[in-house]
Amino acid sequence: MLALLLFACDGGEATYPKDTGHPADSSSPDSEDSSKDSSVDSGRDTSDTGDSTDTDSSVIEETGDTGDSADTGEVVAGPAVILFIGDGMGFEHVEGGGVYLTGAAGSLTMETLPFQGRLRTASLSGLTDSAASSTAYATGSKTFNGMLGLDRDGLEIENLGERARSLGMSVGLVTTDDLTGATPSAQWVHVEDRGDSEVIAEAYLADMPDLAFGGGYLAFEDLLSSASVNLLRTSSDLAAAAYDGRPLLGLFADDTFPYVAQGYDADQPTLAEMTEAALGWLEGDPDGFFLLVEGARIDHASHGNDENSVYDEVVAFDEAIAVAMRWAASRDATLVVTADHECGGLSVGSTGTPGVVPPTEWRWGKHTNADVPVFATGTLATALDGVREDQLWVHEVLAAAIDGATSVTAPTVPTLVDGYTDDLGAQVTVQSQATSFGAGYNQLDGLRVTADADGLYVGVDGVFERGNNTAVVLLDLDYGSSTGWGAGTSLGDMIGEVDAAITTLDISVSASGVGFDAVSASLGAQECEQGLLTEEAGLRGLSGDVGRPEDFAWWDMISNFDDGNIADGSASADAGSTGLTENGWEMLLPWGSLYPSGIPASGATVALVVLLADDDGSYISNQALPPLSSATEPGNDAVSIESVVTISIDATGAVTTAAAVVP
């Protein structure tokens, strides 16, 4: 039985207790006490949730009834805004969870929400981590991996919780992770390094949300004696809690919660129970509330490619969503369910036996760039229905709901390396030869090139086959000098799969003034997160300050593939006619990598060409950008580079001459 918020009655009208701060007594809290933060009522009119099921604006402005106030005389509640994040949960995780639960896909409770779409999740680092993705949901700003509540320059940005609190609303966080974990922390604190748990715990206790439930007792233990919080350690504590003006801090595990498949301790609440308790505490605030609920261990199981745990975690997450959906059924609430990223590259069978782990395959133990699902309800959540958008749209929907707005403002999405190449400008050149490497599996259809202060952006529209073939971008960093590979220099670095493939490529150059100094390559559509150097992908320097022909330098870059442009066992559904496919392989090649000593003061002209070869570089296809003059693939013979795309920049990396085909 849940301990609900107590109301003081005055003239028959329920009131919500608010004070002006934490109690002066900062002694160690009694776990029998309960918590409600003492945010000061802003005095604003909070009857509008901005979230009516009727889209007429005049109706929206009048809504806000919780569904039971008309008969009981209770106060009209403010906005109820709830965000569920399934950490690491992609479309296949949802499908597998349904198969595991009922024997058939499409059977989870979250899948019954009325508005459904898909989201791209890339961060400024390319493949996102939970810190950057949760920060994007919380603040509406993209950042680098590892950063919590900070923008790309390390500056603090207001998050949804702070926005809600500024309007007098209550705030809650619920997770099965350590509370200092990336996803919940990015929703509340502002810390540079997600791994600095001590600093994160201190930031929580310095300014607590109204309630925070999760694991991580050991991270907080040494700080609790001087903290003014209501500490709860067990389900019994949670049920017996009573309001005393202090924030509720439920630390129900020493670190993360156990996997559901391992079994919980007898007095340890489930995610669904914590969610129900949180709603019971927060619902009494007449100004409304914002609640974040994370199913954290979906991601942990996916990193370990543990199918014996992952589906139980998805089902447990779905049970928590069911609690919130039942709670919201008679209320005007905004509820959004999504994920911070996909993890594992999961593939699962669509039918099976209830309670039996379905057939499961994993691609690797890391995050991927795959789209994630979004399920939602609430008037403003229609903006997420039937669309494929960047995750920043979720922030805008939730922020608008918190504000009581009647419309959603489209977010400004920065240039991201996410495989969605439209933001790089128009195609500079398009393919004129039909692919001989498998239409719908391997196509180099168009090339986009631009630049800014961060580096050179290259987008190769097309289709790429997972696990097969090598896509290669040859780069001439001093176009016109006729120095580098292809201009009399031979390569000899056979260490590593991509390096060996580059070395094996047989090229000749007929284009004037061209010699290649660096190569960006990917074997089998392998992503490359910023700072992640791999044998299968990356940027290799062939000459210059660091690299040399017989021992390539491994230079920092970001490389990503659009989720819809990968052929993974069958032809990509996004494959169009030759020259018509959009999106595909996208790269950011930082200037600091291409020019370790700095861009020349006079600027530079970069030339590039794209090739497609087999796995080891010994056989070259007829696919090139700019296109080859002949449809006959070079095969084992040398390919002649007849033309290139050039772009000129000044010393800051700004474009001075737009990308164009030469000659």
- Overall pLDDT score: 89
The CATH topology of the largest domain comes to Alkaline Phosphatase, subunit A
Structural class, from helix and strand content?
Answer: alpha/beta
Just give the CATH class of the largest domain: Alpha Beta
Task: Outline the low-pLDDT stretches.
Answer: 1-76
3D structure, described in words:
With 663 residues, this protein is α/β, with parallel strands linked by helices. It has two domains: 31-40 and 57-65 and 79-403, Alkaline Phosphatase, subunit A; 421-662, no CATH class. The chain is 19% helix and 25% strand. Strands 8-10-7-6-11-4-12-17-5-18 form a ten-stranded mixed beta sheet, with helices on both faces. Strands 22, 24, 25, 26, 30, 31, 33 and 34 form an eight-stranded antiparallel beta sheet that branches. Strands 19, 20, 21, 27, 28 and 29 form a six-stranded mixed beta sheet that branches. Strand 20 (443-451) and strand 21 (455-465) form a beta hairpin. Helix 4 (130-139) packs parallel to helix 13. The longest helix has 22 residues, at 307-328. The protein is elongated, with a radius of gyration of 27 Å. Residues 1-76 have low confidence and may be disordered.
